[in-house]
Structure formats: C-alpha cells, structure tokens
Structure prediction request, 182 residues.
Amino acid sequence: MASIITATVASGLTQSADNSGVLQLASGTGNLVTVPAVTGTAMVSGNMPAFSAYQTTGTALSAGTTTKVVFDTESFDTNSNFDTSTSTFTPTVAGYYQVNACVFVSSTTSAILTILNASNGASRSGGFTNIASQSQAASMASAVMYFNGSTDYVEVQVFSSNALTTLTGQYTHFSASMVRSA
Prediction:
C-alpha cells in the first residue's frame, strides 16, 4: 500500500491510501511529486554539494614538473566542501560527482600542457594540449568521479614542458557537482 500526502490551505495535510506502492506528495493546486524508490539516502536539491572556484593570482608552472593549481576564490560552495587554502574539494556526501577543470596559459614558445584531476593524490582524469609557438591555449579535464563522503578529495595538477603562468579570472577554473548519491 502507498500513500498520497496532500497539502491544502483549507484542510492542511491530508493522506489518502492507494494500491500503487508509490509515495506521492501533492500540493492543493495539483502539483504532484513521486518520491523515488531508493535505499539509503534520498537526495534533494538542498543536500547535493556543488562548488565553482577560480584564481585571482596566476599559478607559476615550472618546466618539466607537475604543479598543483591554486584556486583562491569561490563563485559558490553550497556545502562548504571546497577549501581555498588548499584548493581541494572534499565532499561530505558520498556519491558520484561531475568534476571539471580548465587551465589557460599564454606562451611565447611551444609547450605541452597536461591537466590532471587528482583524487587523493593519484591522477583520475586528464586533458592534454600542445601549445604552438606564441599562442594562448586551454587544457581541460572533465570526469564523473566517486567520492566516499569522508576522506576522498580532488585537486587540479598540471604538468608543463616549459615554465608558464596560468591566466586568472574566468579563464582558469575548477568546479564539481553531485550527480547522484552512492
């Protein structure tokens, strides 16, 4: 047996039984929401972590080394899971997250730029750009990643074949949002 719970101005909350096996919530104006059958945590928009960050100061990339990119300014952080002091995202809700990063540089020489979404220090996804002489280029990485909700984190690291500095503002950015719970 299932129930339909309706909120009306005249009667307040009312409940009616049916035989569908589905829980539904309805407003007095006829709007109806079906609650999905889930085990564990049912996600609602209020508890799905998301953030977006960018940098106001460029990150110096040394030639031939991997460098962590600094993102010092948040556009938003719905669950306070992004730390600007460490430039890491550590979600506190277990699940699958869409993670995106873009690093933009300007180079007067040719260079190879590889961006990595590093989870717990190990590379999980990446993007690659071969920069022609005297040009600007962006390297991007995007992946769906699983996080355990307690210790898993992600950061952006870049390998550059030449010494470069990332461009700031909207050009170099990092974001993630929860896709679904575990």
Notes: The first strand starts at residue 2 and ends at 8. The chain has a mean pLDDT of 82. Residues 2-34 form one domain. The chain has two domains: 2-34, 45-181.
